[in-house]
Amino acid sequence: MAKKWVGTDVRRKQDARLLTGKGTYVDDVKLPGMLYCTVLRSPYPHAKIRNVDVSEAVKLPGVVAAITGEDAKEYPLPAVIDLAPFGQRTVTGYAFPIAVDKVRYVGEPVAAVAATDRYVAEDALDLIKVEYEPLPPVVDVEKAMEKDSPLLYEEWGDNIHLRWTPTMGEVDKAFEDADRVIRERLYEHRYSGFPIEARCVLANYNSADGKMDVWTSTQAPFQARMFIARTLKLPEQNVRVIVPDVGGGFGNKLNWSADVVPCLLSTLTGRPVKWTENRRESLMASPHSRDYIYDVQVACKNDGTILGVKLQMIADTGVEGSNRGAAVATLLVAGGYALGPYKINNLSLDQIGVVTNKSFYCAYRGYGKDMGNRVLERMINIMSRELGIPPEEIRMKNYIQPDEYPYRQTTGVLYDSGNLPEITRRALKRVDYENLKKEKARLREEGKYIGIGMAAKVEPAGAAVPLSIFNGFEGASVKITPEGGITVATSLVDIGQGVETTLAQVVADEFGVTPDDVRVIEGDTDMTPIGAGPFSSRGAVWTVSCVVSACRKLKAKLLKVGANLLGVKAEEVDIEDGKVYVKQSPDKFMTFRDIGRAAYFWPGPYAAFPADLLPEDASLEVTTYWTSPSPPTSWVPPACLYTTHPTSFEVAVVEVDPETGKVKVNKYVCVHDCGTLINPMIVEAQVHGGTLQGIGGMLYEELRYDENGQLLTTTYMDYLIPTAMEIPEMEVEHFESPSPFTPLGTKGMGEGPAIASPAAVVNAVEDALGVTIRRTPLTPERVLELIKEAKEKGSI
Amino acid sequence: MIETTITRERTITLTVNGVSYKATVEPRMLLVDLIRDELELTGTHIGCVTGKCGACTILLNGVSVKSCLVFAVQADGADIVTIEGIAAGGKLHPIQEAFKENHALQCGYCTPGMVISAYQLLRRNPDPTDEEIKKGISGNLCRCTGYINIVKAIKDAAKRMKGGK
Prior knowledge:
CATH superfamily of the largest domain in chain B: Beta-grasp domain
Strand order of the largest sheet of chain A: 3-5-1-13-10-11-12
Distance between the termini of chain B: 61 Å
Radius of gyration of chain A: 28 Å
Structural class of chain B: alpha+beta
Shape of chain B: globular
Strand content of chain A: 15-25%
Order of helices and strands of chain B: EEHEEEHHHH
Oligomer: heterodimer
CATH class of the largest domain in chain B: Alpha Beta
Number of strands of chain A: 31
Number of strands of chain B: 5
Distance between the termini of chain A: 60 Å
Structural class of chain A: alpha+beta
Number of domains of chain A: 3
Radius of gyration of chain B: 17 Å
Largest interface: A-B, 63 and 62 residues
Shape of chain A: globular
Helix content of chain B: 25-40%
Number of helices of chain A: 21
CATH architecture of the largest domain in chain A: 2-Layer Sandwich
Largest sheet of chain A: 7 strands, mixed
Strand order of the largest sheet of chain B: 2-1-5-3-4
């Protein structure tokens, strides 16, 4: 069937609802008898809990229940990622929904209250008395690795959460053969997503039938269901997770330790309990991300050819990244993709996850893909100055060529398709690179400091991480209703990425109808097939592919039923415009409504269905599953992690104010290749948003802890999300290298723009000042230091 | 024993989207909580409660305010418009049309506040430059869009509104 909707800028189905205040986010849901939950949090980063006394709190009129670690200790949080074969230590038995015996970060829950009024629930927290015995906090990740460091988990004997040290190729020989080895130790700071809608949960336990309904703002309804059921020891089939409109995710809504608290209060009170996270809680106790050190050695020839890489990466995983959040495996992804779009045959890794007394580690638009990208994109900029070769030339020299795909990278991962040389040329042309360099020199004469920074990217999109909740499967259910409507149900939740519209576009093309004829069903574990949900840019990989597969199976069935009703052979009919018609005489047709009515009611199955579909297969629906056809060499990471690999080449143009140290991104160009486009308008806007997140991460945002383990950035006043005043002029160009591994050639792309933009921005500031940047964020204070260094060195 | 609550309540009257309401509230109740929890107009959202994100922006006596920074009692006698009151007769307002047409929203959580800020901006300045638009919405945080399409949409809305509406 001809593509009519896929590839076009279909305006979104959900917009009218969201624009008029008729959306429904979890906090908008109210149930009769509902109680409000608040959480008392630790003011200490590391302390023993001697006693928690809620006796005064429960006396406050309106308070119905108060719980502490005593109530939570029977409910240890299960691991959501268990990489014991890769050197991961377990924290199962240490992590609870409410702290038991010991707190390990500022903001860790120590008690929770349910009251008839949210204001009263807040008041009640002031009446809870907690006796702490403070312990020395573990704050600095390098000190945490020292022998005499205090320990978060005494039984471990050290603070190492994961250590993975594979070697691929002949690394020693590569370093012997090199003309030189360029080494740097680079530090990137702690930052995360913090969607404007913080976490929110409404739990409703029915003590009569033992069923629990949970409305929650999550990216993964089925993992939420499993986590809540396992933690609270409820039969999984009795838990229903409902996800209405979600106010942003970015990976931050793939964790449910907080969900368990209102669920527990609901089982205890027998009433619905809602918890709405406030912004302070969100910054201090929801997922943190990034925050790692790279020690990189690049062996290269004097002409820029890269022979090998030795990489040590240290991630500050905070209190842990395996039970509350699933991000300790970012180190595996980062290692697996550290070589980016380059042909490099030799790599050794030493990936270390270290626990500290900070909030837990979870995904944020990147999941190690960003870390992996930063290794060479930053090093190439540094090499460029050392070797005296422009950075784009070093990249061109080392790129995998377009005719070499599918390309098995040295780490074992399989890149599906791409054309880096071409998108690089296009981006440089679009930014008018030659003239830009002249302009930069001219402005320098006027005392203006312009910098041009670039970054290339391979984004592994569509995760299948073994031994984790991020595994590789997806289900879809497509149905023709008795009145001829089409519904498609999957685990994919619309978190802003527009799948309510894009899935309808895909289905519309398969059946020759319009997106308005298709109802997309999402966000309810009772209503959709089991699936993994939206994360890892997986919608256009897994869900779209599964939906296409389900549609094609249903189409084959429709042809048979339509032909049977028309009294011809199945080969003689086809589908178009919502009709099954006879190819030879198109005026003989049955609409989907005719078929629906015939199959279900008038006259019914025995008249409508051909013999080969009777009796067991007499339905107008198909539920099917899809798993990746990208052949893994092994089931262990990193070899089988991701199915598709969108790419981009990005250029940032910045201006550094030499007086104030302020950095402004003036222009940002991204030439982007995510295979077949479903909705270019949506893809372009994903690039806008993700790029600004990358810029914000490098210039403004930081989760800063002081040396005592206190978080200093606990409001949006201190944690600076970019405003409209910070946006650059942005240009996005699409390029399409369809994936051979998905039926429509689609690839994921949502995370991509936040992956390479940080490197492009930092590279641009380096270019403006001519000095190596070893720490971020690039606050005015830090940039002034760099300017001073540059002046002393004579590079400006 | 700590005295915990100021229990005195006040009765206030206010008009929201043209409808008169009478409510009995604690003096400490935030206006946004009155609007969302008591009046059940949930289109106005909460993102920070420190006046930074702008998700709770409404029009109070014709001026845009962040309703998390106003006590309900301060709105006694006020005329309020929330996102639910922007569109008339079941049709989208030109600003809302422009937001849809220019794909100026993703998750939609900041959108009601953003539309109200755009509404205020365009009433004061029917023909704003890009820079004026950016300044006009700089009190509203959006984490999804990168603002590029929001600026475009507001520019488009200005055009649509001059087209006789």
